[in-house]
Write a structure and sequence with these properties.
The chain is an all-alpha fold. The chain is 80% helix and 0% strand. The chain has 5 helices and no strands. The longest helix is centred in the first third of the chain and has 32 residues. Bound molecules: protoporphyrin IX containing FE (HEM) (2 copies).
């Protein structure tokens, strides 16, 4: 079962990055073009939000199943950069990133001025995107 979740989390990551990138570009173009924020624009925001939420759920499950997750926490974790990345930095930073995306999306729904609605999405999603990229275990992922 652990292997299944590992593969799911690994392949789903592409969808997460693609979804956030599309939402980000779409919102940026929306803000720059000065158009009205409508239902379609909200749904384009969901393209980044939904895969990210599913990835969060899978990641949390994986944290308790994988040998690289919680069971990796111990006296040597902090001095080993890979252990620290998997057991601490990747989970913590990604939880913050998912929270930022959720706030960006929720704010966009509540705000009333179109430019601010688009800005809420591209700013929060943009920062989250950078945070996620900064803590991906690239060496393991691309091999
Ligand atoms: C650990 C698991 C999860 C947590 C803690 C979580 C938390 C949240 C929170 C706090 C919101 C904000 C609601 C708002 O203010 O509008 C939200 C929205 C949403 N979540 Fe999740 N979620 C999780 C998993 C999922 C999963 C598995 C899905 C699968 C499809 C999902 C889909 C959504 C959608 C579609 C919305 C937006 C609803 C709307 O349009 O307002 N979430 N979630
Ligand atoms: C939401 C954005 C996230 C993205 C894009 C993401 C992406 C990734 C990627 C690309 C890997 C490497 C997979 C591989 O080696 O093939 C990975 C591993 C891992 N992630 Fe995430 N992740 C996210 C969130 C989380 C969260 C919130 C947690 C835990 C709370 C988590 C826990 C883990 C664990 C434990 C591993 C190691 C799995 C293993 O190889 O045994 N991830 N993640």
């Amino acid at each position: 079962m652990t292997t299944g979740f590992q593969h799911l989390h690994s392949y789903f990551a592409y969808l997460v990055l693609l979804g956030i990138a599309i939402s980000f570009i779409y919102a940026l173009v929306g803000a720059l073009s000065g158009k009205t924020f409508g239902e379609k624009d909200r749904k384009m925001g969901l393209l980044g939000l939904i895969p990210t939420h599913i990835q969060l759920l899978v990641g949390l499950i994986l944290y308790f199943l994988s040998p690289l997750g919680i069971s990796n926490l111990g006296p040597g974790t902090m001095s080993d950069s890979m252990s620290r990345l998997y057991a601490l930095e990747h989970p913590v930073i990604n939880i913050i990133a998912v929270a930022l995306i959720t706030v960006g999306y929720s704010r966009a729904k509540k705000l009333t001025e179109s430019r601010s609605q688009f800005r809420s999405i591209y700013m929060f999603y943009g920062i989250a995107f950078i945070l996620i990229l900064s803590r991906i275990p690239w060496v393991a992922w691309l091999n």
